[in-house]
Amino acid sequence: MIPRTTVFVNRFSRTNPGERAAPGRRAGGVSGLAPAAADVPGAGGPASRGPGARRTIRAVRVIFVAAECEPWAKTGGLGDVVDALARSLARVPGALDEPVEVFLPRYRSVPVPRDRPVETLAVRVPDPRAAGGSGEIVIRSFEAAGYRLRLVDHPPAFDRDGLYGNARGDFADNAWRFGLLTRAALETRRAEGRPLDVVALHDWHACAGVLQRDLVYGPDPLIGPAAMTLTIHNLAYHGWTPRARVAQIGLGADPPAGDGWGIDLLREGILRAEMVNTVSPTYAREVLGPEMGMGLESQLRSRGARFLGILNGLDQELWDPATDALIAAPFDAADHSGKAACRADLCARVGFEAADPAPILGVIGRLDPQKGFDLVAGAAPALAAGGARIIALGSGDAGLVAGMRAAAAAFPGRIAMVERFDRDLARRIYAGADIFLMPSRFEPCGQGQMIAMRYGTPPVGRRTGGLADTIVDLHEDPAGGTGFLFDEATPDALRFACERAIGVLGDRDRRRWDGLVRRAMAVDWAWERASAPAYAAMFRRAMAARRGDLGAPAR
Ligand code: ADP
Description:
Elements: E1 30-31, E2 62-65, H1 77-89, E3 101-105, E4 119-126, E5 134-143, E6 148-153, H2 155-158, E7 165-166, E8 169-170, H3 174-192, E9 198-202, H4 208-215, E10 227-232, E11 240-242, E12 262-264, H5 265-272, E13 275-278, H6 281-286, H7 297-302, E14 307-310, H8 339-350, E15 360-367, H9 373-385, E16 389-396, H10 402-410, E17 415-419, H11 423-432, E18 435-438, H12 448-454, E19 459-462, H13 465-470, E20 484-486, H14 491-505, H15 511-522, H16 531-547
Parallel strand pairs: 2-3, 2-9, 3-6, 9-10, 10-13, 13-14, 15-16, 15-18, 16-17, 18-19, 19-20
Antiparallel strand pairs: 1-14, 4-5, 5-6, 7-8, 11-12
The protein binds adenosine-5'-diphosphate.
């Protein structure tokens, strides 16, 4: 399976000094956003009464449009975050008027549940490929643990192997597929006559929605006034649509958007959404420069205070070693002795000697240059020769793991490369490894290092983006460290950081390692504590901007 459409060649930054956290807390937070919803000018709704009136704040009606949502469809953290954020917003007092509705394609791999009521609605949706210019799309809606999932069921678009493409590459009609997704979401609310305040667009797949609002639905009393926010989970994927394919988006053959070569959907989203955010404060700063901005740095800068970073949380109920039924033994921060059984179980599953005390380094991720599997491959022979063992789990572009395959072949029983998407094995690696590797070249936020910490597996991460916001280096902060950071995106820098971690793990005096594990497990990642309220505040600010209450956009 091919991951999200890559359209831009990245240039990587070398060092990114990050924020540091106080012990037991995560470092990141929100950048660039007034914290309290009540501070937002014009955050009120219909209760506003003329100039100077104090506006009462009312809850908002929000829909999400996204290409992934766990457990239904996931290739990486986008799916985790869409699910957890939608659920956690319902737990923020006063944030929502109704549960979030998440519009998700019904891919071939997405089952319609049989264990709960499913509502079916046929909606007529403008479709450039349909005879007569519009076609019927079925929306299947049901409760999904704290929000309402609305599957956009249109087999010609979504009943295929792969979410974004197949072994031959990205689907050539992705602009049509995802343009139809956003159009179906907007048309569903129109058909139901249910107004909405905010459409939260996630990544480029949803960005056609803001073009559709601006170029088609402006006069529509329901869609026209809706504010739109764009959350950038990964700036590397733009949804670049060449002019020859622009008609697929469903805005006519030559809409007044983009430029001569076509439409960069993410760029349109950045420029047109009322508010734009990415998923950590450090990444939000990094992308304003040419090294990390993926060609969109000037557009992001042009948004001024309308662009901010909100650090992701983690769903601490879904990711909990005390209740995780898939791992060999439960454990928690107070008593992590169960990790030994998890470690032995993991060894047995990948053909490692369970009784061998040699440290186990785990790495899990999409096979994408971003994730640094090549750095792991470069460091692996020296690490293995030095006594360490490595278990890597990755899915996506198999061409990217030739180095890991070679390392695994050279060190059987010491290096394992598992090439598939395997939720269960991922949990067993988080629980059973000693150290988790996250050598990302860039990292908008990262869920992997948070999950690893929660499962008592201190991460070795590159000091970039959300990794810098979530990992506190043990040697820089001996009393507060939760992991290990390194700067250069090289195999040697990764290896040295691994050797530092292995050194502490191997100390005869266990107190330093045990303290590290205890602190890593104790970090509070709860979405509803900080991140979800920050999204609620952003939604209100977007509504104010849509009404014109924030003045002209900072372009
Ligand atoms: P990204 O969003 O860039 O993919 P994150 O670290 O934010 O990276 O999220 C990755 C998520 O996807 C985590 O939940 C991780 O466990 C999961 N994941 C990635 N690759 C695999 C795989 N091959 N098998 C199972 N889970 C995977």
